[in-house]
Amino acid sequence: RGGEPAKEIPFAKPNSLTKVYAVASGKGGVGKSSITVNLAASLAAMGRKVGVVDADIYGHSVPRMLGVDGRPTKVEDMIMPPAAHDVKVISVGMFTAGNQPVVWRGPMLHRALQQFLADVYWGDLDILLMDLPPGTGDIAISVAQLLPSAEILVVTTPQQAAAEVAERAGAIAAQTHQQVAGVIENMSYLPCPHCGERTEIFGSGGGQTVADALTQTLGARVPLLGQVPIDPRLREGGDTGRPLVLDDPDAEAAKELRTIADKL
Ligand code: ADP
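A: This is the predicted complex of the input protein with adenosine-5'-diphosphate.
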């Protein structure tokens, strides 16, 4: 396989109609994957054709969160991605044995990403979401090289310390000449189930801080796309493979996620 020339990436063609978003965060645990799967499920429920590339090498969790239990199959020289809730998914986890940790180096990651984009039969997608590993690692550079037109979505919590790290993840776009489509603040507040009063568990303002800082750095307006509250059912949905946006569409967090999905 080593000597074969790499296949063309359909999304990289100038006439591609697929919008590609790379979902990035400064650090792990801010809800990047949860946001990705809920946006994907929202978009699919709206009738858009959606795919997700789970490129979070060490934290791949998209298949579980979306309830994908199928495996990729091979048809001729293409890989058919399994799907759940009308979302096609390919994950690094589908190509590793069991739950073993992945110790891949930069060039291998690049090659894997290239294959996920070129060798997987995605069909005509409206939107492709890529769940990147946290931080400003090799994979962000690979995305920029393989898909220069991919736009970045930055996920952060409201905490100022987290915002500083998220800002660095977004600022990589200045080097790669990519656009940052917007910032999503997650875990913004906990609404009281009885009176609706909001408790700002992780502080406030982080999302706006990142959006403003990136607007400055990039010289182009980077909007704060939304603020998703804490909802224990969002976590439960991730554990059971039923995204909150489908399971309880009236939940405050679900409504906010739909509003964000509408802007993509
Ligand atoms: P990341 O992809 O950034 O590492 P995850 O999506 O895995 O983060 O989220 C980290 C943890 O926080 C998970 O257990 C997830 O279920 C939970 N979580 C994420 N967002 C929310 C939210 N808005 N409300 C409640 N739990 C959340």
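The chain has a mean pLDDT of 91. Residues 21-262 form a domain with the Rossmann fold fold (CATH 3.40.50.300).
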